[in-house]
Specification:
This protein has about 220 residues and is of the alpha/beta class. It is built from four helices and nine strands, in the order βββαβαββββαβα. It starts with a strand and ends with a helix. It binds iron/sulfur cluster. Iron/sulfur cluster binds next to loops.
Length: about 220
């Protein structure tokens, strides 16, 4: 199969359990919960997305005809002979629309650990090393196990109340305050309510988007 990739870049993971760790972000084009077009946002299953995942025109993006070609492009973004375990985070869009076992094996053959950031609506291949699921309202959760569950908070729908996820098989549970673009007061209110929930329910930890605070990509 071929792969449509919006962008590939080296940065520090800004969220969740691997915050601060160097990683190659590989953003697949396309999502199954929103077209990515503003005119469709109100009708989308996921309404608060802040990511451009349309097309293949970002830095390092393109259409890759083979798993080997894409894995080579990711490997080229990692600093050579610099120590540390190479790490690729497959994100999107929804990465599990495209990430398959041949690509995961191609990453492993180049020494990479493979992480994903998924909305949880598609089952993940077993070979993935780090699974981060971020459930979205109105979307059925299929991937109910993994390493971290990262819930954007608050979401209006009852299905996304944190208590709905506490029995699932994850090692870490994070609440991430909903960032309202252009409305810092509303964002601050979400930070306060997420922090309060974590204080009252210590299973949950607060995940802040440190890359936004620090101005990293
Ligand atoms: S599931 Fe993720 S990538 Fe898709 S629209 Fe929602 S936030 Fe954006």
């Amino acid at each position: 199969m071929s792969y449509a990739v919006k962008e590939i870049y080296l940065t520090l993971q800004g969220e969740g359990n691997h915050t601060g760790r160097a990683a190659v972000f590989m953003r697949f084009a396309g999502c199954n919960l929103w077209s990515g077009l503003e005119r469709d946002r109100e009708e989308a299953n996921c309404k608060f997305c802040d990511t451009d995942f349309i097309g293949v025109n970002g830095p390092g993006g393109g259409k890759f005809k083979t798993a080997a070609a894409l894995a080579d492009a990711v490997a080229a973004a990692w600093p050579q002979n610099a120590g540390g375990k190479p790490y690729v985070i497959c994100t999107g869009g929804e990465p599990l629309l495209q990430l398959d076992t041949p690509l995961i094996k191609a990453f492993h053959a180049r020494g990479f650990e493979v992480g994903i950031e998924t909305n949880g609506t598609i089952a993940a291949p077993a070979e993935i090393d780090w699974i981060c699921v971020s459930p979205k309202a109105a979307a059925p959760l299929v991937q109910t196990s993994g390493n971290e569950l990262k819930l954007v908070y608050p979401q209006k729908e009852a299905e996304t109340h944190p208590s709905r996820f506490e029995q699932l098989s994850f090692e870490h549970f994070y609440l991430q305050p909903l960032d309202v673009i252009g409305d810092p007061a509303q964002t601050a209110a979400h930070v306060a309510s997420a922090a309060a929930y974590c204080l009252a329910h210590p299973l949950w930890r607060l995940s802040t988007q440190t890359h936004k605070i620090l101005g990293l990509p």
